[in-house]
């Protein structure tokens, strides 16, 4: 089938390449010229394991083409995926839907044949209905259907999550004929057993925001327990392991530490609260305020811990920050807990040197005033404290003895509970978590 993907960021580029992998002919539309040129050459403008090979193969085969032209898009196909960003509004907790609206505003008046627009972006409940009303007004003598097909992929596992998802969700309005089209698109995935849930658009929108709210709540739950463990001298990792054996709880997403960041969980729980407020249901989600608070406290706690191990003041100290991406296997620094901590420590007068295996360029753009080193060992040169804030394998397997020979003081803060405490303590390090 022929289809168009509007917006080629972390989600859209992956979706476009994966749809080509499923055998479809795909046209990807991106508004940022540098990203578009890179993609057209078969290069991925961000780090996502497995995506470069897949994308290059389908660019070379001609199954995937890249353009900036909505006029070309409406000639090319009658099925359009919206994968543009829905960031947090500046100065407000709600979702900024300007990019979704701009895509619909530009696309619909150009349509000369009946079309199906499938939203993949994460949006507040009620958005599909609003866009459907708008599309009715903008459409010129054609039937334009809006449906929602939210995406659940994780960065770092984006290709496998797209090709082998836990489930597919489709939200359609009454009388829709979109189900058959969407079944055809995902047939190779559905035929090997992926659950395909067809519901109404508002339910589909809520499946997505509820899933992220649950994941965020699970992380903040274990981080709240970590606070109590710290006060009581208990071991939160052992608590997580033990409660995780209960199949009703499960061990995944119970890793205590610096908490969640990224381009999804933080902004999605805030947008969810904002939307619930608009719907008169603010109280129902008031617990998410606490989920957010617990999460943000993890960051200030690590800053405080760093201050403590540095003798009570950060002024003039040298701090090594290992990790800048919001999680390993990604170069994404959107709302990165690691960079947030690095920035706070710098504000208190320390000189902070950051190293990350993949996120250096993105970090420099967001935090140009931090120092950057070319390796973990270089970042730790003469450090008064070393902070591991993203659990890259490279940091988990650091040699405590070797690192000990370059630092000024043997202070290591394990912000992700990912290091082997014994291995560090036996080398004389003051290990804190
Ligand atoms: N990143 C993820 O892991 C992930 C997973 C599931 C859902 N989502 C959701 O998917 C959406 C996109 O997220 P992302 O992380 O890919 O964001 P992103 O910022 O990386 O990508 C969005 C892309 O859309 C482009 N764009 C903006 N307006 C456009 C327009 N009118 N036409 C064509 N292109 C346009 C931007 O230039 C950008 O490249 C968000 O709603 C997000 O919440 C993201
Ligand atoms: O036990 C855990 C698990 C995760 N995290 C942190 O939580 C954040 C988010 O991690 P993850 O959910 O793996 O990353 P994302 O790629 O942002 O994926 C989330 O957000 C996407 C966008 O909506 C959804 O599609 C995914 O299903 C959802 O997992 C990261 O900072 C992690 O370090 C923890 O602190 N502890």
Automatic annotation (TrEMBL):
InterPro entries attached here? Answer: 6-PGluconate_DH-like_C_sf (IPR008927), NAD(P)-bd_dom_sf (IPR036291), UDP-Glc/GDP-Man (IPR017476), UDP-Glc/GDP-Man_DH_C (IPR014027), UDP-Glc/GDP-Man_DH_C_sf (IPR036220), UDP-Glc/GDP-Man_DH_dimer (IPR014026), UDP-Glc/GDP-Man_DH_N (IPR001732), UDPglc_DH_bac (IPR028357)
Q: Tell me the enzyme class.
A: oxidoreductase
Gene Ontology molecular functions: NAD binding; UDP-glucose 6-dehydrogenase activity
Annotated Gene3D superfamilies: Cytochrome c1, transmembrane anchor, C-terminal, NAD(P)-binding Rossmann-like Domain
Annotated ranges, domain UDP-glucose/GDP-mannose dehydrogenase C-terminal? 320-421
Pfam families hit by this protein: UDPG_MGDP_dh, UDPG_MGDP_dh_C, UDPG_MGDP_dh_N
Query: In its UniProt record, which GO terms are filed under biological process?
Result: polysaccharide biosynthetic process; UDP-glucuronate biosynthetic process
Q: What is its EC number?
A: 1.1.1.22
Keywords from the UniProt entry: NAD, Oxidoreductase
The answer to keyword Disulfide bond applying to this record is: no
Which catalysed reactions does the entry list for this protein? Answer: UDP-alpha-D-glucose + 2 NAD(+) + H2O = UDP-alpha-D-glucuronate + 2 NADH + 3 H(+)
Sequence positions that bind substrate: 152-155, 208, 253-257, 261, 327
Q: Which residues form the active site?
A: 264 (nucleophile)
Q: Any idea which positions bind NAD(+)?
A: 35, 86, 122, 155, 267, 334
Which pathway does it take part in?
Answer: Nucleotide-sugar biosynthesis; UDP-alpha-D-glucuronate biosynthesis; UDP-alpha-D-glucuronate from UDP-alpha-D-glucose: step 1/1
Q: Which family does it belong to?
A: Belongs to the UDP-glucose/GDP-mannose dehydrogenase family.
Which NCBIfam families does the record match to this protein?
NDP-sugDHase
Q: What is this protein called?
A: UDP-glucose 6-dehydrogenase
């Amino acid at each position: 089938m022929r289809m168009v993907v509007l917006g080629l960021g972390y989600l859209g580029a992956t979706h476009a390449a994966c749809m080509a992998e499923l055998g479809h002919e795909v046209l990807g539309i991106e508004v940022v010229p540098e990203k578009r040129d890179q993609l057209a050459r078969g290069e991925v403008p961000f780090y996502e394991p497995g995506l470069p090979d897949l994308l290059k193969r389908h660019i070379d085969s001609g199954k995937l083409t890249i353009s900036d032209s909505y006029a070309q898009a409406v000639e090319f196909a009658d099925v359009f995926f919206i994968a543009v960003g829905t960031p947090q509004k500046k100065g407000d907790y709600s979702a900024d839907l300007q990019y979704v609206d701009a895509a619909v505003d530009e696309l619909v008046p150009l349509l000369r044949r009946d079309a199906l627009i499938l939203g993949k972006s994460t949006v507040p409940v009620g958005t599909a209905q609003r866009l459907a009303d708008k599309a009715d007004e903008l459409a010129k003598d054609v039937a334009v259907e809006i449906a929602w097909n939210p995406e659940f992929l994780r960065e770092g596992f984006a290709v496998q999550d797209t090709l082998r998802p836990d489930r597919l969700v489709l939200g359609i309005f009454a009388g829709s004929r979109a189900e058959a089209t969407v079944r055809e698109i995902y047939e190779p995935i559905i035929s090997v057993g992926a659950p395909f849930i067809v519901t109404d658009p508002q339910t589909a929108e809520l499946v997505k925001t509820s899933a992220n709210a649950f994941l965020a709540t699970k992380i903040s739950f274990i981080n709240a327990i970590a606070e109590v463990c710290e006060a009581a001298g208990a071991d939160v990792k052992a608590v997580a392991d033990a409660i995780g054996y209960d199949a009703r709880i499960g061990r995944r997403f119970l890793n205590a530490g610096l908490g969640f960041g990224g381009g999804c969980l933080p902004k999605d729980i805030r947008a969810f609260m904002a939307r619930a407020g608009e719907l008169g249901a603010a109280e129902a989600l008031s617990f998410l305020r606490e989920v957010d608070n617990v999460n943000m406290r993890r960051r200030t706690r690590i800053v405080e811990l760093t201050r403590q191990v540095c003798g009570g003041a950060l002024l003039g100290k040298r701090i090594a920050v290992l990790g800048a991406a919001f999680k390993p296997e990604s170069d994404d620094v959107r709302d990165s807990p690691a960079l947030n901590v690095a920035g706070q420590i710098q504000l208190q007068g320390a000189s902070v040197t950051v190293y990350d295996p993949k996120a250096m360029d993105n970090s420099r753009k967001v935090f140009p005033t931090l120092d950057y080193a070319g390796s973990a060992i270089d970042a730790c040169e003469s450090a008064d404290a070393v902070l591991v804030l993203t659990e890259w394998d490279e940091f988990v397997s650091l040699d405590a003895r070797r690192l000990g020979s370059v630092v000024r003081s043997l202070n290591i803060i394990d912000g992700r509970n990912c290091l082997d405490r014994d291995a560090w303590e036996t080398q004389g390090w003051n290990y804190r978590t």
